[in-house]
Amino acid sequence: MNIRMVDTIGQYQRIQQEVDQKVQEVIRSGIYINGPVVQAFNQQLADFLQVPRVISCANGTDALQVALMALDLEPGDEVLTPSFTYVATVEVIVLLGLVPVFVEVEPDTFNMDPDDLEAKISDRTRVIIPVHLFGQAANMAPIMEVARQHGLKVIEDTAQAIGATYTFPDGTTQYAGTIGDIGTTSFYPSKNLGAYGDGGAIFTRNEELGEKIHMMCNHGSRKRYIHESIGVNSRLDAIQAAILSVKLKHLPAYNEARRAAADRYDEMLQDVPGLTVPFRAPYSQHVFHQYTLLVEAGRTTRDQLKEFMGKQGIPTMIYYPLAIHQQKAYQTYAPGATELALSERLTAHVFSLPMHSELDGKQQQYITDHLRRAIELHSPEMT
């Protein structure tokens, strides 16, 4: 059975005619950078997210970097963020001369722990970057309350959770990435809303910040050859914008298909010993960028399961084999030995199965049948 970790090919085949037409229109127009197609997509995404301003850019890493640049921080200022995340979240902090301070995650959602966040604040803290990991929104109400009490800015890393929603205690709902001062996302091909190349976006409800970010993405300029601030060259090209404009219309259906696939996995794995299926927080509508299990037996068995599955033609992934503070490049910023014990433990236990909008029950049955067999062979004590 031909199983992919992410099936971008199958997804494209369903919308091929519409995508091809839009791409051809861009090519025939001769306008490949910025232009009406990019502006139309920015407005389309703004309407979807219910925010006044979206600024598309070259990739999700640039989105995070420009968001930080827009806040006029000074070298040595501290940014609070999880260590159990993709490196880009922390990479941009260090590149700008800022100091990452790692916050522990919650044991069920794997997202930022608001209690540990409060404990990590110092007189140098300026920004909080919660990561909506694996498609589930972080618990934003207490995070925003901490930010309010201490006068901190909040940048949401929404690279894995575009379209996920967060419900506040009063019952109001907002999209992940639209709650803090600035939200960022990535359009890397494997994302829930993925381009056919690199891309990213920044969104905000603050018009002044939005205009500043727009300039920064274009060499600090709002008028050609007139530069008002230090900026970067980070733009979404028109072909990618055209593709994304088609796919954005399908995003709710894509996310619903992922949730349905996650429900099927849950049912198929409910009686498998030694595995913990993903937790759904009551305040978040999960969009399952990843379907990530916990393997109770730990790293050795987890790695054996991955190897066995690969031999059966079933791709799996480990997000992430090391937390950021354990990586050689970032050990300068590592905290005390026990401060991030849960983040370190997760790296030894997480195990992600194929997840995408084209996944069907027959494929999932094949995957879970072989996972059961792998557990029987490599960890008899789990059975």
Rg computed from alpha carbons, rounded to a whole number of angstroms: 21 Å
Order of helices and strands: HHEHEHEHEHEEEEEHEEHEEEHHEH
Q: List the uncertain runs.
A: none
Strand tally, please? 15
Helix content: 40-55%
Q: Enumerate how many helices there are, as a single number.
A: 11
- Largest sheet, order of strands side by side? 1-9-8-5-4-2-3
Distance between the termini: 26 Å
The whole-number mean of residue pLDDT values reads 96
Shape: globular
SSE class: alpha/beta
* SS strand fraction: 15-25%
Major sheet characteristics: 7 strands, mixed
Protein architecture, described:
- The protein has helices at residues 8-29, 35-49, 60-69, 88-95, 114-119, 140-150, 207-217, 238-269, 299-311, 341-349, 361-378, and strands at 53-57, 78-82, 99-103, 125-128, 153-157, 165-167, 173-175, 182-186, 200-204, 221-223, 226-227, 275-276, 284-285, 291-295, 350-353.
- With 383 residues, the protein is α/β, with parallel strands linked by helices.
- The strands form 4 sheets. A 7-stranded mixed beta sheet has the order 1-9-8-5-4-2-3, with helices on both faces. Strands 7-6-13 form a 3-stranded antiparallel beta sheet, with no helix packed on it.
- Helix 6 (140-150) links the parallel strand 4 (125-128) and strand 5.
- The two termini are 26 Å apart.
